[in-house]
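Hi C.,

You asked whether I'd gotten around to modeling the 132-residue construct. I have! Everything is below, sequence then structure, no commentary in between.
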Amino acid sequence: MHMKYIRWLITLSYAAVIFYLSSRPWSGMPSFFFADKIIHFFLYGGLAFLCAWSLRVTESAGYYVTPLLAAGLAIAYGAFDEIHQFFVPGRSCSVWDVAADATGATAGVIVAVIVAKICAGRRATIVSGGER
């Protein structure tokens, strides 16, 4: 199977897990202050990272467009998921959750860009035979 399909399969599976978790009434939420926002931050940071990782092998729009598109996809998915939660018993729809999603998505693409730069630097060193 081609690498881009494997990457998208992993990314879509991650998104499906988020959807599954948000489809369930949540009574086991940690009770410390802002726990749900921290969970949103990390879940959507991970989603944006995976979107950037997947787009990197499929999108040829350019260096700056790929992270923006990855963040946009993760934020749109977060907004869609909040609307979905409105219809789930025991869950609610919150603009503050979308804000946490967006903040996490932004952090996720920043990490993805840093990781991509590190990997590209290592690849260039390997291809050129190392430093002399």
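If it helps when you're writing up: The CA atoms of residues 15 and 21 lie 10 Å apart.

Thanks,
B.
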